[in-house]
Request: fold
Amino acid sequence: MSQWTVAGLVSRVAERVSTAGEDLADMVSRRSLVDDLVAVERLQDLFPPVEPSPDFTESLHRQLMAAPVFVPAEYSESPSATGRRLLYGVAAVGSLASAAAVVAVIVYRSRPGCQRPAA
Amino acid sequence: MVNTDPDEVLALRARHDRDAFGVLYERHLRRIYNYMYYRTGSVADAEDLTARTFFQALNNLHRYQVQGVPFSAWLFRIAHNLVANWHRDTSRHRMTSTDGLVELASEADGPDDSAEVDEERRELHALIRRLPTDRQQLLILKFAEQMSNEEIAVIMGRSEGAIKALLHRTIKNLRDEITRAKREGP
Reply:
């Protein structure tokens, strides 16, 4: 081994020794990271995707398409409920119109120039 | 023709239109089945719980709020609740065989895989089955369903940071268990 090579080797070892503390900490955290990655890789291998059988897929699809669905009354929009809402709406508009007419008559009659018909 | 409408639009339409529900079923069946299979370890139970998930979704579509969570997360919540009840009612999670799961992984690898690898997988499945159910669910959503931490957070009702921390703790825990099992030997 040449003198140059030995000197280089000694210098590298010296450098390693002088920074041993940092290196060790680094090595430990790198080791932990590698272990984590190995664990993750193993976990990924552990769960290959599974497919349901075509028979099951078909049969469940058929059942779902044919199943009656129970929807609670408060969520169902029955025609009678819609009709009732329309009726309430018309009644509300009518009441407002009546109230407005009464107010208009009162205002009209209370004008100074407005004469009441003689009895 | 393939329907490209977003899940949320289909979910609203599906309240009155069964075909729209059929599209949702086709989109999500494989993922729900996959999840159920790895949560129960059996084809029969996975089929039963998958069917129940879709029937429950169909009957509760009127409760689904578009502004709330994505449809897939809503469906997975139903699946999670059903499988949690299944575990609670039957206490089968301690007895579930991992043989089917290991065979499945071996088939995926091909015939060159050694018995030693199968044994390792069996041990790993056994270790996972001993974890608390929320950690089992997390691992399955992450590694079987390939979901992001954000999606998992919505399904499990936790923050994304909490999921990240739980995942880190779970992997570390598993790693330690594997090391301990190796040290103790057969």
Chain B touches chain A through 46 residues (CB under 8 Å). The mean pLDDT of chain B is 84. Residues 1-96 of chain B form a domain with the Rna Polymerase Sigma Factor; Chain: A fold (CATH 1.10.1740.10). Chain B has nine helices and no strands.
